[in-house]
Specification:
alpha+beta; Rossmann fold; seven-stranded mixed β-sheet; 23 helices; 47 strands; about 20% helix; globular
């Protein structure tokens, strides 16, 4: 007869099956495995579990914790207004323990997402409408030149309007007529300086701002305009600070290179909407995207240099960032150096070195992050670039809710992987090919303005509707015409005009003389990321590598509105004087480059000019830049994966660690998120895994200012014990696999000294880590000995609590299975409870017992797994009995168990089970209980009483 205890197991494929039987119900009257923390971080792999062994390793991968309230140029420097609670939780754990798995949150939309579920952001709406729609607007400027000049102008800046418009105000090209509006030429009032007006949706002027492009000036454009996108959102910004716009991209180096006029009236500017058909600059609703290089291309092996076009050279490989997001393209660039022709007759493949460099370094002082030497394009060589760097990447499957892995070679780079063309990977290309250049980032195709030859003709047209520029139909006299097939109209000031305008691009190094290098051969041709003629980093480079708006493909050959910023090749490098070299586009065609003059590609390499640098570009975080905290509880409320990218991203992060065979963990948490839908999922995963404890934050506690505009002083934001208790009871949770704490705590950032409020789960995790180090995980993580936050038990400095609890409030919380964080006058701040969320009274309603059971199950399962496919005989049973008993005896000796019993014999594994290839054991445990209540009677006796009685 089959033991009824075994019938609950589902035996299909070989494996170890465990369960626990809780016989400790009251009458009705490894260590070595660390937590999983899900949260935001400064950088690092997105939505992918990564295990680190120390806090220094965490910083190396994910960056330092961010305390929040870091202002400045938010668009340029990134959003650091909200604390990264997950990073502080990681710090709290890793102070006293090793091994933590972190999942960084970025914006990922679901495959079946609705329009509302798109990741990224949109500011305003379409342009061909009224003032109320806002949109994206570009400032174009050009030198005045002569009246019929064919000068080249440039896109200089981009504003994003939630509503209303931005216009220039001044005199027109006649120099006499006052003008205000968009699509009208306005003369500069000083060198590259204009006056602008901001209008709201009603057409009322709200700001008048004078600006220029001199970083040393108080009128510098990025100093006088709002650069904080979060000030557009009324949910988190007070009305007195609310803005209708922010300044996005500015292209300072392009302005410096292309605009030379240095006096009043020597430049003209006009503002136009940025759009092409249905594609708008302000619409950046896109999934998170990894940065990449353009294709690296080969040298020209032909002898017909007159027909040379670098864009037609053989594409060899690209580099992609391992993770989605913007950090890599803002902080790294890629150099190819030491390019060498083969000197081995038996191996015709040449070699080269790939260097991952700091974006901000200079050729005078190269700062390598990674270096891969002696790379080859020979797929059969151990030095094949795909083998040296790695070509593996992961892709999330929304249907199966898991990652799929691709690629042949393990990744050796921490930052990038290689994508080879199929011909190179198959060895089908000419072995002489070497990386000689690259395709740069994608930008918009420029346009011309031509008002005709008649001086009386006021309006010029920009060409075709495919150009990324358009009228803003405000409906007043300052804007005429609309975008159509014949072009877009601009008021050029009643003087004949012909000119061309370019969009943003990263310039190339033109000569080895830039930067005063000691040796000209140390110069890297390719992109120049510095201010003109200097080695100071040009921060407008950040704006040049940004991803283009929604709907634009990355390949310009498929879109006439796009072009490459550059297609660089060493084939266009030629001699400059006796020791220097210069890059001039088209010099191979004109016959002046090294390779054209000598007829061999090796000439430029032999001359010592064998290195160049390419950018990473096109990365995108997929976040709404208007939110200080992109994953706040307000935006998560009432959502689902298909209608909220925020909800989908958090759920995907949780799903990525749901399988215990993929990620080992003993604690699971998403600090700061109190949304019941998300915390229910966290609890569900812990219950399904049955090997970890979920620490959740709950509703009713403190609400940080990143959530709304009410601030700390608002009663609804401060946190309320009764509300918290009622909220939790209304959820009717009854799970020993979860726990919760109250209230929020104040911590001090150890790097900056800044103070910030953090959710109580952060402190709780730190105390559990401290307890494991000082005792064992089955010892209660609470009380003055191990839960003293003031004394450093949290692993990070805790300096205050948001709510100072009374004894009555502590009782209310503990009765509702919420662990109080109390503040005592003498003892300081302490975690004063260790209940799980199990309502049913049993040993498992305490954290120490739940963690003990999780640990024991994992360790016993590990012991049992060594017996899979062993003979189902007494000797095998004895091996299990001996090892399990030895392990449980050690737990008992360390105060985890009061007693135990292991039963594995013919009474559990019956002959019928043996015939079915089953070994069945029972383990009885008496967990050690913790002292939580102490009663002491003090008896006052008469003076004549004897204490010896």
């Amino acid at each position: 007869m089959v033991d009824s205890g075994v019938q609950k197991f589902k035996f299909v494929s070989p494996g170890v099956f465990v369960d626990e039987i809780d016989n400790s119900h009251l009458p009705r009257v490894g260590p070595g495995v660390g937590p999983v923390v899900i949260g935001r971080a400064e950088r690092g792999p997105a939505l992918t579990p990564v295990t680190v062994g120390s806090f220094s390793e965490f910083i190396e991968v994910f960056g330092n914790p961010i305390p929040g309230n870091v202002g400045g140029d938010i668009w340029r420097d990134g959003n650091k207004l909200a604390p990264t609670y997950g990073a502080y939780a990681a710090q709290a754990w890793l102070k006293n323990n090793q091994n933590l798995t972190y999942v960084r949150l970025l914006g990922a939309e679901h495959t079946d997402r609705t329009t509302a579920g798109q990741a990224g952001f949109i500011i305003g709406a379409s342009h061909d409408a009224t003032l109320s729609t806002g949109g994206g607007f570009g400032l174009f400027i050009i030198d005045s030149g002569t009246t019929t000049s064919t000068n080249t102008g440039t896109l200089a800046a981009v504003w994003y309007m939630n509503a209303g418009s931005i216009e220039l105000s001044g005199t027109d090209r006649n120099g006499t007529t006052a003008q205000t509006g968009t699509c009208v030429f306005i003369a500069s009032q000083a060198a590259k300086e204009w006056r602008s007006i901001i209008k709201n949706s009603a057409g009322t002027i709200t700001d008048t701002i004078t600006f220029n492009f001199d970083p040393a000036s108080k009128k510098y454009i990025r100093s006088v305009f709002n650069t904080n996108p979060t000030l557009l959102l009324s949910n988190i910004t007070n009305a007195s600070q609310l803005k209708t716009y922010f300044l996005g991209e500015t292209f300072d180096r392009n302005v410096a290179d292309r605009i030379t006029g240095s006096a009043s009236g020597s430049n003209f500017g006009f503002i136009m909407a940025l759009e092409s058909g249905t594609i708008n600059q302000n619409d950046q609703r896109m999934n998170m995207t990894a940065a990449r290089t353009g294709w690296f291309i080969s040298q020209d092996l032909s002898t017909n240099s007159g027909s040379y076009n670098p864009a037609t050279m053989t594409r060899l490989f690209q580099l992609f960032a391992h993770t989605s997001g913007e950090w890599e393209m803002r902080n790294l660039k890629v150099s190819i150096e030491d390019i060498r022709v083969s000197s081995n007759q038996d191996d015709p493949y040449g070699t080269f070195t790939v260097v991952i460099r700091k974006m901000q370094d200079s050729d005078n002082s190269v700062i390598p992050v990674e270096r891969f030497t002696n790379c080859s394009l020979n797929p059969f060589s151990p030095n094949y670039i795909a083998k040296k760097i790695g070509d593996q990447y992961v892709s999330w499957d929304d249907t199966e809710r898991r990652y799929r892995y691709f690629g042949n070679y393990r990744n050796m780079s921490k930052y990038v992987y290689v994508s080879m063309t199929s011909d190179v990977d198959a060895g089908a290309t000419n072995p002489e090919l070497l990386p000689f250049g690259f395709f740069g980032p994608v930008t918009y195709t420029g346009f011309n303005i031509n008002s005709g030859s008649s001086a009386a003709q006021t309006y010029g047209t920009t060409g075709s509707s495919s150009n990324f520029a358009g009228n803003y139909a405000e409906g007043n006299a300052n804007v005429v015409g609309t975008k159509g097939t014949s072009g877009i109209y601009v008021n050029v000031g009643n003087i004949a005009f012909t000119g061309s305008f370019l969009y943003h691009s990263i310039p190339n190094r033109t000569t080895t003389r830039v930067g005063n290098l000691g040796n000209p051969k140390d110069a890297y041709f390719g992109i120049d990321v510095h201010r003109a003629g200097t080695i100071r980093f040009d921060r407008s480079t950040y704006d040049c590598v940004r991803k283009l708006p929604t709907g634009l493909a990355d390949d310009p050959t498929a879109n006439p509105a796009l072009t490459w910023m550059q297609v660089f090749s060493l084939d266009d490098v030629g001699r400059l004087g006796s020791t220097d070299a210069q890059w001039v586009s088209g010099s191979r065609v004109s016959g002046t480059s090294y390779t054209a003059q000598t007829g061999t590609y090796s000439a430029v390499l032999s001359a010592g000019f064998n290195r160049f640098t390419a950018p990473l570009y096109g990365g995108f975080d997929g976040l709404d830049i208007q939110e200080r905290e992109p994953f706040n509880n307000r935006v998560l409320s009432g959502q689902s994966p298909t209608v909220s990218y925020e909800y989908n991203s958090v759920k995907r992060a949780i799903d990525s660690v749901a399988d215990p065979e993929v990620v080992s963990t003993n604690i699971l948490m998403v600090p700061g998120i109190t949304n019941t839908g998300i915390t229910d999922i966290v609890l569900g995963v812990a219950e399904q895994r049955r090997d970890c404890l979920a620490i959740i934050d709950i509703e009713g506690d403190y609400i940080p200012p990143t959530e709304n505009i009410n601030g700390d002083s608002a009663a609804g934001n401060r946190g309320n014990v009764d509300e918290t208790v009622n909220n939790l009871r209304a959820r009717a949770l009854n799970s020993s696999y979860g726990c919760a704490y109250f209230p929020w705590v104040q911590i001090r950032d150890t790097g900056t000294g800044a103070s910030l409020w953090a959710p109580p789960s952060v402190a709780a995790l730190g105390v559990m880590s401290f307890t494991e180090k000082r005792a064992d995980l089955w010892i209660p993580p609470a009380g003055f000995t191990r839960g003293g936050l003031t004394d450093g038990a949290a692993g990070i400095p805790i300096t205050g609590v948001k709510t100072k609890l009374t004894s009555t409030e502590r009782d209310k919380l503990y009765a509702a299975n919420i662990n109080p964080i109390a503040s005592f006058p003498a003892e300081g701040i302490v975690i004063y409870g260790q209940k799980t969320l199990q309502v049913t009274p049993s040993a498992l309603d305490r954290i120490n017992v739940r963690r003990l059971m999780n640990y024991v199950k994992v360790q016993i399962s590990t012991i049992a797994s060594t017996l899979i496919f062993e003979p189902d005989l007494q000797t095998t049973w004895d091996r299990f009995n001996n090892r399990a008993t030895e392990f449980l005896r050690s737990v008992k000796a360390r105060f985890g168990l009061e007693d135990f019993r292991v039963v594995l014999d013919s009474t559990t594994t019956t002959p019928d089970l043996v015939d079915r290839n089953i070994m069945y054991a029972k383990i009885f445990l008496k967990p050690a209980k913790a002292i939580e209540f102490i009663g002491i009677d003090f008896i006052i006796s008469n003076s004549g009483a004897s204490f010896s009685d």
